[in-house]
Structures are given as structure tokens and as C-alpha cells.
Amino acid sequence: MTPEERQKRIEEIEAQMSGVDFWNDKNNAQALIKELQELNDPTPVGGKYDGGDAVMTLFAGAGGDDAEDFAYMLFSMYQKYIGKKGWATTLLDENRNDGRGFRSVSFEIKGKKVYGTLKKESGVHRLVRISPFNANSKRQTSFVMVEVIPKFEKTMNVDIPESELKIDFTRSGGPGGQNVNKRETAVRIVHIPTKLSVHIDSERNQAQNKDKGLEILKAKLYAIMEEKKMAEESGSYVSKTTDAEWGSQIRSYVLHPYKLVKDHRTGFETSNVESILERGELDGFIEAEQNV
After folding, report:
1. What is the DSSP string of 76-126?
2. What is the pLDDT of residue 46?
């Protein structure tokens, strides 16, 4: 439906709602109200998992300290966008460097249409700027992989033989953690055939972290199993195995020698980089992605 068609339908429904006999047929009235709500929220829910929650993971790619700092910048950007949407987040795992940067960070997002809204953020993001980590103040390019997978139900039919898993228990890390240097509560699970891995330290004990890790690992494996079906939804899943480097980026954030954020799939761009990176105003990019 084009924006013009959507607006026309909104006006038709609003005209019917103003009629004195609108509530004579209660079922029809409720159906029209639901349709109006969906028309006023243009984010599509056409995919199988679009209406549900999601797990987002950021992986620093090529660029060293600069890439890890860029991962922090994207984490902050998404957190602000998520806050504007009224969604809730739960940190699942973080692997920080000695500064503020992330080697990787994973978090769960709960709310209305989370996966459908964010699924096309999956891919390689590129940053170009004068690096604060370069002693010669040279321009540097760095990359971060963004992975978004749907939050599946626990009952999904994915069976992983124990022989295919490598499970390690480590001490939880991160500032202020209650279990730091006390007990080995953090869990790292590797699926040996695919080399997919999950690290979880958000729960209170080892068993809970293991359960959460297995849940996410199953989601990743299920996403691979459903990759062909998801591809029909215009690239709803991007695997972590994609190299976060030159030639694979979906969006560029250029801070020098000019300012521009541009999505290479849709052509949508803005020179107001502060509104994107500092305030998380991603609606223009998200809406453009929905029409691809």
C-alpha cells in the first residue's frame, strides 16, 4: 500500500467512525479500529516473527580500538532509539576493552514489532572519522557487524546433540557485577559444526546462564535453518559470518572530511549525524528500509 492509499483508507475509516450507527455492529467497529491502528503505524508485521521480540548483537570488526569504540557508539545509538520506542532491553553479555569500547555486546529487546522494525539493521556498518586513537590524527575507517535475530519461543523444535556443544564456565565480568571474582557463573557455548557461539553472564547463576545461552544458540541455528524463507522477506537475517570489512557495508557514518550518514541499500541519507549517533533518531532510515 502506497502512502497515498494508506492515507485515503485512514480517512475512510475515520469517516465511518464519526457516523451515529458506527457501534451498531460491534465486531465490525472493533475490526475497523484495529485496522486504523495498524494503518497509523506503518511498520509492516508481514514476516512470521515480525511482531515479536529480538536479540541484537554488535561485533567490532576491522579497525582495532576505533572499531570497538564504534561498537559503543552504535550501542548507545540503538539504546536511545529503543527508549524512544518505549521498548525494554536486557543486557545479555558484554565484552569490553580497557576503555569504553565493546569487542562485542548482546542484548534482548522486548516490545511491539521489535524484530519487524529492526531486522534490516542487520549487516556491516562503517565509520569514517579522524581517529582519537591515532597519534597522528589521521582519518580511519572501522567496521561493526550488527546482527538481529528474532526471539523465538522456548518450544521451538531445535534439537542440539550434546556432542555438538562445547560449554565453558567462566567468571562473570563487567563493572559492578555481583559475581565478579566469586563464582564461575558466566557461560560460553560453542556449536562445533557451525562455530556459532554465545556468551551469557546476565543471569544470577550458572544454570540460568546456560539455559539462556542455549535458547539464543537455538535461535541462531533456527534462523539459519529458516534462512531461505527469511530471504523471501527481503533479507531479514544476516549471518555473523559475513566479514565486517570493506565492500560489505550497508550503511556509512562519515564524520570527516564531511558529515553524512548514508544507507547504501535505500539511498536514504542525512548530514545531521548528531541526530543519528547521539540522539538515535533512526525513523527515516527504518522507514526507508521497510520499502526495500
Report:
1. HHHHHHHHHHT-EEEEEEEEE-SSS-EEEEEEEEESTTHHHHHGGG-EEEE
2. 59
